[in-house]
Design brief:
16% strand; alpha/beta; 46% helix; 8-stranded parallel barrel; single chain; TIM Barrel
Length: 303
């Protein structure tokens, strides 16, 4: 099922994101985590996608395994970096043959191992071009095309300081054929609600799914800021984390903060919440319990 259909059918979607394991042992551990989270009946799950060849293959293998061995609806990330038209066509053909119907089209960053990489070699320079390619490719017999998501940046795109221009870029991705937007992580809901309003003003009216990542450790908090290229950490969250004497306490703070974010988002009629799980299940399960959610497919709550 296309994600757009899930978003239209469900009051609020709950979904999870994983990253591809580095080896076979980690792959089995991750699949165990997925099976635990499958009991929460997420609306869908996604798998990230690196620019390196081995990481890509593990993404493809994991996506196909999810499709074949679980009842989950899976989304594969696709990036513009290090791809020719032929390579991207082969990937989409493989997914279509496996019955995978959804992708998340991203610009992506060159791998750190490829210093001075020339992006001009890539077939797609921007996510907008990748969206258009996926949307307009010739369908194989029996295929109805892919559902397509794109990224949104509540705190601002790191490569586009001009936020008016940022919205122009986002609108072009949607106009090229994107069905919905999934945001990068954020810790202050005011950023999300402001982003949603600016989308409305810019004429971007596809569903917007909010990305939430619970803090798990002090080191992890710093790492989050690095990965998101400058995520704003609210002073209140920093104070709470600084009071902690170990990572177990930090995790509790992170779960509480993310729970309150989710409460506020639900009150604000968010269309979906996407948990960046870091391939672990505990925080997500705790947040579900704190919210009283027992079945995300219908947002049913325990009595």
């Amino acid at each position: 099922m296309h994600i757009a259909e899930l978003l239209a059918r469900e009051t609020t979607t709950f979904s999870f994101e994983f990253f591809p394991p580095r080896n076979d042992a980690a792959s089995e551990e991750l699949f165990g985590t997925m099976q635990q989270l499958e009991a929460l009946k997420p609306s869908f799950v996604s798998v990230t996608y690196g620019a390196g060849g081995s990481t890509r293959e593990r993404t493809h293998d994991l996506i196909v395994r999810i499709q074949e061995q679980t009842k989950l609806t899976a989304i594969s990330h696709l990036t513009c970096v290090c791809h020719s038209l032929a390579e991207m066509s082969d990937i989409l053909d493989r997914y279509a043959e496996a019955g995978i119907e959804n992708v998340l089209a991203l610009g992506g960053d060159p791998p750190k191992t490829l210093k001075d990489y020339d992006r001009k070699k890539d077939a797609f320079q921007h996510a907008e071009e990748l969206v258009r390619f996926v949307r307009n490719r010739e369908n194989v017999p029996g295929e109805r095309g892919f559902g397509i998501g794109v990224a949104g940046f509540p705190e601002g795109h790191p490569g586009t300081p001009n936020r008016l221009q940022e919205m122009d870029h986002l609108k072009r991705k949607v106009d090229a054929g994107a069905d919905y937007i999934c945001t990068q992580l954020f810790f202050d809901n005011r950023d999300f609600f402001d982003f949603r309003e600016r989308c409305e003003l810019a004429g971007v009216r596809v569903p917007i799914v909010a990305g939430i990542m619970p803090v798990a450790s002090k080191v992890g908090l710093v790492r989050m800021a690095e990965l998101s290229k400058g995520s704003r950490i609210p002073a209140g969250l920093l104070r709470a984390v600084n009071r902690c004497t170990d990572d177990a306490a930090v995790e509790k703070v992170g779960i509480h903060w993310a729970t309150e974010q989710c409460r506020s988002l639900l009150d604000g009629r968010v269309k979906g919440i996407h948990f960046y799980t870091l391939n672990k299940s505990n925080a997500t399960k705790q947040i579900y319990q704190n919210l009283g959610v027992v079945d995300s497919a219908g947002l049913r709550c325990s009595s």
